[in-house]
């Protein structure tokens, strides 16, 4: 079968790593794989072509495509995509829309570009959706996409164990770029509560200019507070593999993930993982028996430790702004009451200024105990790698391709996108670090 894999660009990214894997496994299955390269596919806030013109241009360069896999089709990164996908769906060609991320999920700028488009999520029997976690699959189903046309397609993991470089003290590596949702403040809180011989490090600085200022603010704060933590340690002289070897533990304090590679990769590398749990993501791993024993659900902060007047002011402003950016309203009084209903607030869901004040002025005995216990565990049990092997991925995508190819063609309708938006944009899902 002649299969096209489509994405906005071919620059290095997590999605393009998945596209490379799909090309590999589909070719191994005997398919002919096409990856169109056109400037009109790249990020664009204005339509460079109509959807019909873009489809004709791709088909002229790559005729007789029998099945399409389009990555992040509804993310709002290219103004032509919705109309292009509509035109493509109307041809009756089997179509797989793989959603790694959603404009509805903490990306209001993206959503603004598609807010007036009613044909964003096409529905027909020859159109199938793929997700990288079961949470997104359930959200699509609740929004109205038939379960039979939603496919759970978790990423494959191919990392190999990394030997230790004989450390004589705990060295905790956060192996990420320090974007805002990685919750750098909480990692700094660990550094404040760890034993004197423990060091912490964050691998890399953000690439996106939007997050660099926040990253540098934490870097300055950590130096000011004399915290045992280093920022952006990965360099040409000391590459990522050097720091992996040096590490005794890998960390996560992230408040939002997609596939959740941060939870599974440490086991492949042979390192204990410690940090914040995200049950709606990690349930896919624990269901396969992956041990995630040293994760916590929250760090509770009593309201008495906070400047509650300032926090309420920040909360009301930010949640109203977030909902307004999606052209939605809410009952702010009820949202605030629910936010503080247990007389505590999760440290990870506080603005950076409040996090910094707590690091300076408040002690967390339970965190100190948890850190000491977690850092005393310096080995990770070997995982059952089969569920995330290339072979498993190949089997899943082969089944998906076969089902999509054999699906009958039906008339095209479109999901009411508001039903999907309300799945993501709920007051109880509000998070300061996603604003």
Percent range for β-strand residues:
5-15%
Strand order across the largest sheet:
2-1-3-4-6-7
Helical segment count: 16
Largest sheet, described in full?
6 strands, parallel
Specify the helix fraction band.
40-55%
Low-confidence stretches: none
Structural class: alpha/beta
- The coarse silhouette is globular
Give the beta-strand count.
16
Whole-angstrom Rg: 23 Å
Mean pLDDT: 94
* Beginning-to-end CA distance, first to last residue: 43 Å
Q: Which labels suit this protein?
A:
single chain; alpha/beta; six-stranded parallel sheet; 435 residues; 16 helices
Describe the structure.
- With 435 residues, this protein is of the alpha/beta class.
- The strands form 4 sheets. The protein has a 6-stranded parallel sheet, sandwiched between helices. A 6-stranded parallel sheet has the order 10-9-8-11-12-13, sandwiched between helices. The chain has a two-stranded antiparallel sheet with strand order 5-16.
Show the helix and strand layout.
Blueprint: E1 2-6, H1 14-28, E2 32-34, H2 51-61, E3 67-71, H3 81-90, E4 95-99, H4 108-114, E5 122-123, E6 127-131, H5 134-143, E7 150-152, E8 171-177, H6 184-193, E9 199-204, H7 209-224, E10 229-230, H8 240-246, E11 249-252, H9 261-269, E12 273-276, H10 279-286, E13 295-296, E14 300-302, H11 308-325, H12 332-339, E15 344-346, H13 352-361, H14 365-376, H15 390-406, E16 413-414, H16 417-424
Parallel strand pairs: 1-2, 1-3, 3-4, 4-6, 6-7, 8-9, 8-11, 9-10, 11-12, 12-13
Antiparallel strand pairs: 5-16, 14-15
Helix pairs in contact: 1-15, 2-3, 5-16, 6-13
């Amino acid at each position: 079968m002649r299969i096209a894999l489509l994405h906005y660009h071919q620059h290095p990214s997590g999605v393009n790593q998945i596209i490379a894997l799909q090309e590999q496994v589909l070719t191994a299955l005997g398919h002919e794989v096409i990856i169109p390269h056109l400037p009109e596919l790249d990020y664009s806030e204005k339509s460079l072509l109509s959807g019909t013109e873009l489809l004709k241009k791709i088909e002229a360069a790559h005729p007789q495509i029998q099945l399409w896999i389009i990555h992040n089709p509804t993310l709002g990164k290219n103004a032509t995509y919705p109309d292009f996908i509509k035109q493509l769906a109307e041809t009756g060609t089997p179509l797989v829309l793989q959603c790694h991320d959603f404009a509805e999920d903490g990306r209001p700028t993206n959503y603004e570009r598609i807010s007036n488009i009613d044909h964003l999520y096409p529905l027909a029997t020859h159109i199938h959706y793929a997700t990288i976690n079961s949470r997104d699959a359930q959200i699509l189903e609740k929004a109205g996409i038939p379960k039979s046309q939603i496919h759970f397609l978790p990423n494959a993991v191919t990392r190999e164990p990394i030997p230790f470089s004989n450390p004589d003290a705990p060295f905790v590596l956060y192996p990420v770029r320090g974007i805002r949702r990685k919750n750098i403040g909480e990692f700094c809180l660990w550094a404040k509560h760890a034993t004197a011989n423990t060091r912490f490090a964050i691998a890399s600085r953000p690439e996106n200019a939007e997050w660099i200022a926040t990253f540098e603010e934490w870097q300055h704060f950590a130096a000011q507070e004399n915290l045992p933590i280093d920022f952006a340690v990965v360099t040409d002289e000391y590459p990522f593999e050097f720091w992996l070897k040096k590490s005794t533990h890998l960390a996560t304090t992230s408040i939002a993930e997609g596939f959740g590679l941060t939870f599974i990769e440490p086991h492949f590398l042979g390192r204990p993982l410690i940090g914040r749990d995200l049950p709606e993501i990690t349930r896919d791993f624990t269901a396969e028996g992956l041990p995630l024993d040293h994760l916590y659900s929250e760090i509770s902060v009593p309201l008495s430790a906070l400047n509650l007047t300032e926090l309420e002011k920040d909360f009301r402003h930010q949640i109203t702004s977030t909902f307004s950016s999606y052209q939605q309203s809410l009952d702010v009084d009820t949202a605030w009451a629910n936010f503080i209903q247990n007389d505590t607030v999760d440290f990870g869901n506080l603005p950076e200024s409040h996090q910094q004040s707590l690091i300076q002025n408040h002690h967390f005995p339970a965190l100190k105990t948890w850190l000491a216990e977690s850092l005393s565990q310096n080995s990770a049990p070997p995982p059952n790698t089969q569920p995330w092997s290339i072979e498993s991925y190949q089997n899943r995508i082969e089944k998906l391709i076969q089902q999509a190819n054999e699906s009958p063609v039906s008339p095209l309708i479109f999901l009411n996108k508001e039903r999907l938006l309300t799945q993501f944009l709920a007051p109880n899902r509000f998070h300061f670090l996603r604003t």
